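Assemble and predict.
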Amino acid sequence: MPSSVRVKTLRIDDLDVAGDEQQTIFDVAIEHDIPIPTLCHLDGLGAVGACRMCLVEVTNANQTRLQPACATPIEEGMQIVTNSPRLQEYRRMILELLFAEGNHVCAVCVSNGHCELQGLAQSVGMTHVRFPYHYPQRSVDASHRRFVVDHNRCVLCTRCVRVCDEIEGAHTWDLMGASSQTQVVTDLNQPWAEAETCTGCGKCIHVCPTGALFEKGHSVAEMHKRRQFLPYLRAMREREL
Amino acid sequence: MTRRIEINPVTRIEGHAMISLHLDDAGLVQQAHLHVNQLRGFEQFCVGRPFYEMPALMARICGICPVSHLVAASKACDELLAVQVPPTAAKLRRIMNLAQIIQSHALNFFHLSSPDLLLGMDSDPTQRNLFGLLQSHPERARDGIRLRQFGQQIIELLGGKRIHPGWVVPGGVNEPLSKAHREQMLGMVPDALAIIERTLTWFPPLLDQFSAEIQTFGNFPSLFVGLANHQGTLEHYDGGIRVMDSAGNNIAQWLEPNHYADYIGEAVEPDSYLKSPYYKPLGYPDGMYRVGPLARLNLVDRCGTPRADAAFATFTASHPRPVLSSFHYHYARLIEILYGIEQIELLLNDPDILSEHVRAFAEPNRSEGIGVSEAPRGTLIHHYRIDGQGLVTYANMIIASGNNNLAMNRGILQAARHFVHGTEIKEGMLNRVEAVIRAFDPCLSCSTHAAGAMPFHICLHAPDGSLLHELWRG
């Protein structure tokens, strides 16, 4: 560790740990094999704290708050709880809201069995959704020769936006609209085939946690995402800089 | 002045239906209708979806015969890709389709119909079910369960799961068959063969007890329709459409399945969500036809496997073809099970069956695709159109059970006229009317694209609407 790094000590789930001051709670927890569920976070991409799945209870200076572990830098003396009945309930509720908000039909999805949203629902024991489904009318853009975006399955994690911007440098993807009308768009909401900035690299496909982005030619459960490239590309980029 | 009896819902079938019988003052049945009273709308909500999803999506129509929809939908998607499916993939699809037919036929014969056949049409309705059968004829019931297991296990070994496997895909199948799984399947064949041969020994003598039912359960002239091959043997996966009249003449020897709309029309009746397909050259409703195991046996020269050919010869020796009584769907089902087991064994021993070349890849090359196969209950047609992006713009399906709609209506009228009369309705009378439907083994959840569990309620109303008689079951 370089001498300029300042080390901070904190406590996560009754374990005394230490980390670089630039690390997040999530980074330090993972280093110490303490699992925290995430959805929008992906190793190699910048954190946005969009999904709130990684909420943890942080006590500092006698105040306890819920903070997203992926976007909260560590501080000296923090007391962190990563799993409690309250957190479990909130995480499950977040997932149920995500399912109720979109049109997630796992049975016929290309990502069935390999979907992070589905995996999280299973891991928290989500057996049903307590909220009324919205059944929104959402579109499918299959204009690209190789790729499809199915907005029915999008959870707005913005991984596609970040990988396209931070790693590929194209910034084809971005967000449009607000609230429940928000959706990811290519090139100011042009059909994907007409998005001139798209390099066709396919990184967005592979970072997408659900079946919202997929390659054409795949049938149900056949879309396996491969993300091994991401930390490698990130490390190479940082070394060059 | 007429009275109306409702059998609502019909029990021990797959899906929701109601039968209405209209009686005149003398208590004689004047009309009978099968009303299929639920709708699911698959043809509509798949519009806008990528066509690659269609096999898995359409398979969700049904938990009994999802493989049939997988096969027909994938064949339609093969057409969209305009690819030649690798021969091994076609053989593997055939195996799965036959396994599906075996398990579905076993379900109908043993679980749904055997209570009528072994316990009697008039037996105690509280015992006239699989559980009653397990008590009175445990060996027969176990045989049925084992035979279903045979079909389901083959589906699982091929596709990874018994219901809704995603293994059949546009262009072929998504994984080759492993040697270990082939050996496992071959190991199950002798037991399955023994069961069906045993069944073919005890069932035919039983027919003597059902002469009235054989005479009246949909026993009338009609056309017979099904897939045919050039060898004149049973064909469930490929080939052309053959149409036979009730005298046994092939009025159409080989119609291209892709041109189905030229010769099959779909009429709509106001009292049912199930359409009424008919053979266009004869018009509606004269173009009534029957599909399924009995139709297939009427259409072929022989089955094509040794033991099934022997059973077929025994059947046709005592029942000259074309066999017109729908009661004999039961017998035909047993012969097809035997054929299916033998054919699966033959295909598993094919030297190419372990080939790893099982899928053809392509972008869509056509905007329209039609897939036709033989499902357990008859000819199944899936028809899709896609736009330039590969998204579905149109879907039409003619489901096997739907093809029999006109014949089922005719069948219940015939049986009702024979068995139902008088002011007091006995449960056994109405059970016979239901049993006509069971003989056809309709899968109504597929054919209207509905699902659900079924209690049973029959009401006999006077013309003024007053309730004369009421029966409950389930």
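The mean pLDDT of chain A is 94.
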